[in-house]
Amino acid sequence: MKNKKTTLQNKIENLFAVIFFFILLFQAHSSKSQNLDFNFPRIASFQWNGARPEWYSKYGLVIIWKNDALAAAIKRLNPTTKVLWTQDWNAGGPYIGNLPSQWLMYDSKGNMIYYNKKRNQPFANPTDFSLTVNGKRYNEALPQKLSEMTNFNIYDGISTDGVWLFPYGITDIDLDRNGINDFDEHGADWIANQFKQGFSKIIKTLRELIGNNLIFLNLGYSSGSVGQGYANGRLYEYWPIGPDWDNWFADYRRWNQNSYNNDPISIVFGRASNEKDYSNSAKNHFIFVRYTIGSALLGNGYVAIDGYPEHYWNNYYDEFDVSLGKATSSPQSLLCDSNGKNCVWVRFFKNGAVVVNTKSTAVTITDDELKVLDGYNGPYYRFKGGQQPDFNNGKVFDSVELFGGYSNSLKKNLGDAIILLKEQKTVVSDIIVDNAFSATSPGSHEAFFEGNWLDGIYPTDAKDPDKDNPSWTTGPSWNGDYATGYFRYRYARKGDGSDRARFIPTIGVTGNYEIFEWHGWAGKNLGDFKMADNVPCTIQYAGGKKVLAIDQSKNFGQWNSLGIFQFSKGKANEIVLSNYADGVVVADAFKFVYRGLNSKSDNVAPNPPTGLKVNK
After folding, report:
1. Which of 163, 202, 329, 529 could hold 522 in an S-S bridge, CB 3.0 to 4.6 Å?
2. Up-side HSE of residue 136: CA atoms within 13 Å toward CB?
């Protein structure tokens, strides 16, 4: 009997051991599936090249056109930045400009279908009805070509630009090439299924070829499961255009949960304007910015804020520099409508929380309402920010009114969000005032020019950031359409000082700021012009005025420190350059880095930085 009891005990103990093992396994899987091991916010740039590698290296995820030299430069500056390259698969990806006729799509009359007629780009056929070239259809040749041409010692993965899961805007298509319009013969659903099956085949094959490297998809407005399980994430372009917020959020969460290798890199890609807006109004639409960042924080993806036109440059906000740490809860909803939609959402993090209003009306949320939620660890504070000092005011959080309603400027429904912190902190992202509005920080105005300044245009054949004119820019990489907003720099010939450039930062937080100046050279090549070594630079700060001379004949393509100065809140502080110099003067960019309230001001400049002279 004793032996039987011992045997029974052993069986029970073994049973509990097995149960305990599965509990641990479930917990590990559950923890992994929630993807809580990221530091938030996760910020990204999806942009058509042209920016300095120093700019890209600020981001955790960067997607650019293929440029090995640029990618390598970004990696040298920040090895942790994930860099992917992208091309438009709808237009043929690496075959753009050289797509065989067998890989194209045609209508029922045999006419070639264009993906972008303005750019003379025919539509590549991703389906199994594509004819073969050297024994391969387009959906078989494309992944092979992509994997062969990617140096994974530089790039972390491959991205798409256009991947349409339906031939939008096309009314006559003949995939099976029998002379009958497929819309009439098979219907729209059949056509969509051919596209989805074709692109799924491409993505699956690419995954097999590149192993654990990253795959990122731009699926436009489409939602659904194409690519899930094989790709790491997708772009939500023009967010929040497309389905309503709740449908978008469901798709976003599915991608978070079904990303390959549990490494979600979906990007909530907000744009505050859908019109041609060559001004600061779109980038300064801070309610939209908060709404976009807050919505992204409810999942585990990245966030990016676009300018206009699409992907020409991306903006940088105070919220990007807030350190929320790892998520400690899943998103939780409050105040939903009776159908369970249009809610206020809350998520908690190690260092704070985010509250997002997705309702069509404004709501007031109190700290007491947050206290009842799982993961609350308050009290919380608003961070003290430089771009929205009235909203992000540094005060203890008791309540907030979050916008909700229709935005006339955006022509869409708009919500709002707030980021809260466990400790009182000042978060002022670097303020850059550039000659162009595209490279000027939100909240500030680009430089003002008086006199005869010439536009410095970026060379169209630029390929290598280590060899090109290193003027400051955040994009784009070419001239032509819309170029007036993106001149890399401006320059003036030596003169009597009547040509002046004024750089006026908008200061939201009074304090000490270190000033940096950036210049390249005038012209395409160094030596095209004699650069001045005594550029007059007048700094107006809270304590008075100081005049320096900047040597622009050297120290190209770097942030040159001019010292630390106390700046008061507002727009009373400025830097003025003039052409009263011995050569060509470049007016490119100034950066203002917050150093707190107690940093020792360098107003006397006892040790002038290299390349600077003190006028007596």
Report:
1. 529
2. 12
